[in-house]
Amino acid sequence: HAVYVCTPHPMHASSVRAALEAGKPVLCEKPMTPSAAATRPLIELARERRVFLMEALWTRFLPVYATVNDWLAANAIGEIRGLQSSFCFNPPFDPDSRLFDPAQAGGSLLDLGIYNLAMTQWALQAALGACPEPDSISATGLLGPTGVDHRVAASLQFPGGIVSQFQCGLDGAADNSLRIFGERGVITVPER
Questions:
Q1: How far is CA 99 from CA 56, 75, 76, 109, 155, in A?
Q2: What is the DSSP letter of 160?
Q3: Is the distance from CB of 83 to CB of 178 less than 8 angstroms?
Q4: Phi and psi of 180, rounded to 5°?
């Protein structure tokens, strides 16, 4: 029996905890929680109870990524040199919407940027066997009237000089693509 519960980001932890304590496997829509500190105890509880726990991230399961994974594993473009991605859209501003309400953990980074970061980690893991921790992170953003980030641009520097750059935003358009640059070629995953 599957049960679907739709809750704002800050309420995910209590719903996930209740399911894990009941011995129920959990697939939780991103973000698992608004912070790593709130997520760690859930991971520990899932391990302790030996119950499945996973953050749902639909992009990881699109069929195109199986093909890209094969290309990266086969070193088709050579060693990765960099990545660029964007994920932006422009919904009507509503301060009560989960997208713009700080009490509901709104903002472009938690709602959209998580995809950019997850795909960076995925691509590096596919190409290198594991995603290293970044050596440095540089980010800038634009806060909206409710105090949440409407736009974030970031650059992550990884060992070996690999750089991942991304932009996410709730205030404009972008090509919403992923590009992986290698020593001998480029892989582009366009929107949709």
A1: 18, 39, 38, 10, 23
A2: G
A3: yes
A4: -120, 120
Which residue intervals of 74-113 are DSSP H helices?
108
SS3 97: coil
Q: What is the pLDDT of residues 53-109, one digit of tens each?
A: 999 888 888 899 999 999 999 999 999 999 999 999 999 999 999 999 999 999 999
What is d(CA 172, CA 87) in angstroms, rounded to the nearest whole number?
10
Structure tokens, 72? 């990266």
Q: Which residue's entry shows tokens 């509901």? A: 104
| Helix, strand, coil fractions of the chain, as percent rounded to 5 | 35, 25, 40
- List active site positions: 30
Give the list of residues 6+ apart from residue 24 with CB closer than 8 angstroms, or none.
Answer: 3, 51
